[in-house]
Protein 1
Amino acid sequence: MDLSNAKIVLGVTGSIAAYKAVYLGRELLKIGVELRVAMTEKGTKFVTPLTFRSALSAPVVVDQFESPTAYNMNHIGWARWADLILVAPATANIIAKATSGIADDFLSTLILAAGCPVVFIPAMNSTMYLNSLTQKNIKILESNGCYVMTPEYGELASKESGHGRFPEIQSIIDFVGDIIVKKKSLKEKNSS
Ligand SMILES: Cc1cc2nc3c(=O)[nH]c(=O)nc-3n(C[C@H](O)[C@H](O)[C@H](O)COP(=O)(O)O)c2cc1C
């Protein structure tokens, strides 16, 4: 699968797995992805924007009302730029917000404005993940054309085992790669 030159916005939310997004971002850069990072305010409680700026040399936006560094550094500019939005880790909260079309911060507004595939990588405590509301929200997102990866079963931050563990980075890259390949072949088919 070829992700080189793909333009991806990495969305980082307030999960204990947020630090793993730094490693995910580094692996995406190694395979030639162009990256930008959109963090929720709660995401910044776990990892700072500075970590992403320094480790990935990528633009990072948290607050959509910050003075932009360029004219198109707003949610519409980013939505037009992106080939794919990858929310990893995705909290139960961002999943619920995206399900309802809530757009009350930069990342949720970007998700609503996106014309490209939006991929969610849930990471949470297993009771939150298996809660029927979260499960219903995931189904709604999928029926709306979004992609939601099934998290792994394994040891969680609480030290219990359960569903909701952030998947291995390579599995996420494979999942995203398949989506980009499918989109590309659909585009080629439609234009031929
Ligand atoms: C220590 C800690 C760890 C958390 N880990 C998770 C998590 O892994 N997944 C999740 O859905 N919520 C988790 N939460 C709760 C979210 O941070 C909370 O729902 C927050 O409002 C999410 O905001 P956001 O979606 O805007 O980032 C955690 C909260 C704390 C204090």
Protein 2
Amino acid sequence: MIHMSNLMMRYKTGKVALSGINMDIPQGSFVYLIGESGAGKSTLMKMMYGGIRPTSGQLEVQGTKVRDASEHQIRELRQRTGIIFQGNRLLNSRTIFENVALPLRVQGWDAERLLPRVKKVLSFVGLEDRLWSYPETLSGGEQQRVAIARAMLSNPSLILADEPTGNLDDDTARHVLDLLMALNKLGTTIIMATHDLHLLTSHPGLVVQLRQGALVTGQQHEKV
Ligand SMILES: Nc1ncnc2c1ncn2[C@@H]1O[C@H](COP(=O)(O)OP(=O)(O)OP(=O)(O)O)[C@@H](O)[C@H]1O
Ligand SMILES: [Mg+2]
């Protein structure tokens, strides 16, 4: 599913955010990406959907070589990837329906075709009755569940979730994690950046730790 060899990312500022990353992530994994603030978690996640490209080394995601891929190939990669951003980013002026529908709207789906699909993913996260609500009328946990529904809309084989439980209380965070685990059981590979290590006790997964842009080795990190 994901292959990295000697992966390096240097931002235009000169900051080396990642270096010497070697790792393989098999299909169907549930991976927790951990590490202190600034360790490079979001940088690695952005690279995995082609939002930024590696400076050197190799990153292959779902068969796409991210460094050398054409714009067209990156667009295709994104269509096969569900993304939950750090700080959820719902559009406040749009209904829940429109927010969830967005990834397929940009692919040209019309409302008639979208409605049953959006209803289906919203019912998966238990929010089908909020179809015509606006984001600001939902709690933080509900908004995060909407973000999950949106990420699963096009039935991606990979979901990248950057701090999906940030700012949520423990019970709500567990509920959000239950949903991601349920998707994983259905075969979706999940990679989740998190600071909430205590969630691992109730929701075990493979742990990949970054420190100052490098993998912390010594555990089962190289082959997860
Ligand atoms: N666009 C950018 N330009 C320059 N430097 C950046 C950019 N984005 C991130 N960085 C730097 O790269 C390093 C890694 O940042 P990144 O956002 O990947 O960390 P993180 O592990 O996600 O942290 P957090 O837990 O706070 O979200 C940091 O030192 C950060 O300042
Ligand atoms: Mg981050």
Protein 3
Amino acid sequence: MKIDIITLFPEMFTELKKHSIIKKAISAKKVTINLVNLRDFSDNKHRQVDDYQYGGGKGMVLTPQPIYDAVASLKKANSKVILMSPKGQLYQQKKAYQLTQEKHLIIICGHYEGVDERVLDIVDEEISIGDYILTGGEIAAMVIVDSVTRLIDGVIESESHLQESFNNNLLDYPVYTRPENFRGKKVPEVLLSGHHENIKKWRLEQQKKQTKKKRPDLMERGMIDEK
Ligand SMILES: C[S@@+](CC[C@H](N)C(=O)[O-])C[C@H]1O[C@@H](n2cnc3c(N)ncnc32)[C@H](O)[C@@H]1O
């Protein structure tokens, strides 16, 4: 998969590309992450990319011209153009899985008061990472890049993410490592038993219990097999 990110702050992504699973996925050529500086596409002699809002109001708005031209320079027949926006659909694991099926993502990061509304005409999807306001789309774009990359086939063992929170609308089960007894707090007996069936049963029970307690809204989505 290729991911182009249109941003005013390409350097914010430098560290993201240098560590952990993203770094490995880049080395293994599972993903290419290309940073595109929005200012390079400004036809303004001062490389300006923002302007005042019509109608008045505080804060600048990203003008459509550099965004249109940046997208046009990157877009292929199979590209999906995503605008990071608090007004978008709320991002969930299901969407991350869907995005792994794409060959090419173009992610536009907004800034200031946001982007000129006419940019929506060249966008396939607006995505929000939560009901709060970030300064710019960069951190939101990183959330997409990270969550999608780790789901791409061959990046990590598929068994690892099949067991993770949100599959079947359940949170993950509790995990423990050494020591067996940490300051009087013991690892549940069943996990030391070596009895695989009982461990499996206990883990599923814990998943349901924890989801009911911490995220009842997930259970209300009604996709849990209670059998
Ligand atoms: C300060 S925000 C603009 C907020 C906008 N005035 C509003 O109230 O909806 C600047 C940029 O940050 C990004 N952004 C902020 N919050 C976001 C969120 N929750 N999810 C995705 N992107 C977000 C978007 O790209 C947005 O254009």
Protein 4
Amino acid sequence: MPIQRLRIAGYRSVRQLSLELGPVNVIVGANGSGKTNLYRALYLLVAASEGRLARTLAEEGGTPSVLWAGPRGAKKPARLTVQVELGELSYELSCGIVPFDPTPPIRDPFHLDPEVKSEHLWAWSGGRKVVLMERKERTAFMRDADGKRVTFPTQLWNSESVLDQLGEPHRFPRLSEVQRTFAAWRFYHHFRTDPDAAMRHPRVGVRTPVLAHDGADLAAALLTILQIGDTRGLEQGIDDAFPGARLDVRASEGRFSLFLHMPGLSRPMAATELSDGTLRYLCLLAALLSPRPPPFLALNEPETSLHPDLLEPLGRLVLRAAKYSQVWVTTHAEPLARTVAEASRCAPVYLVKRDGATQVEGALDGESSDFTEEEEDRGG
Ligand SMILES: Nc1ncnc2c1ncn2[C@@H]1O[C@H](COP(=O)(O)OP(=O)(O)O)[C@@H](O)[C@H]1O
Ligand SMILES: [Mg+2]
């Protein structure tokens, strides 16, 4: 189920935005234009599907801080809404803040939590939009496998999505399919490469088809690719970036260590000696050549601390990954955006800020207004 359209409203610098997605999506923009905010908005759906919505928003500073800080329409409540279209399905999550109780006038100690105000799953069928799940605050109804309308048996936990609270997934196959789809999306934002980072030191390893989000299991992930994955792609990716270099992963008593043989040096460089940029590039190799590709793979600003010479090789790696996954890359590196866009024929999306709000460059002001109208029609 590829993402066909993403709509975001009321989240950080995104007042309202609608974006059509293709197989390869390169999101470009100056610092502060809102690239990472878009990436984070998508990640919220993964968090929602795994019961980590409140925790994820708390790590971003809490719900009150992530709500759009600019003007809203008169009497419109502050809402953060993320909607995705996946084939004929459309899912939407809308959150606000915990209401302030004036009696007694004390702040809820959990005021950083989100409060899920509404949640929907629709399916397009024969030109009609059918509601498969509708949640209002703590109650929800959904259609079961036979199309029968069922009320959610218990009160919902108000700071988390219904996706994670589904007790009998087999009864609600479409909803559970959406939950599993979100949970399978993969996001890479920052690989830890400081001197104490796990990837720089020998580490107990298991066969690792999916690199950890911080790259901690890099050596095991690379060895897994060499054993059962795209060995040729990995060797080419290394040669493309570091001509003549060769990867060497050693295992001793179950602990894996990473070395790189470089032309001109009489001994291989250990992970402790490699530069941040080299290690990050190796992480990107492991992430993009995963033997278990995800349906959707997102990289946020992968150019961080990479030498400009590595941007085109990285672009080629992204294209290789796009054979198996829908890909999303936010970047401010022009050569990376160009390499990917030219070969994939998917034009980059340029973000700009207008009056503090992130917008797609060239989009007409009214272009994304259907989102609100839809919301208003539903009394949201
Ligand atoms: N709640 C908010 N309301 C409005 N703007 C916000 C909010 N939170 C963050 N921002 C803005 O978002 C911008 C950062 O967006 P970000 O996606 O990190 O940019 P980049 O394109 O550099 O990745 C900053 O300019 C910041 O002012
Ligand atoms: Mg950013």
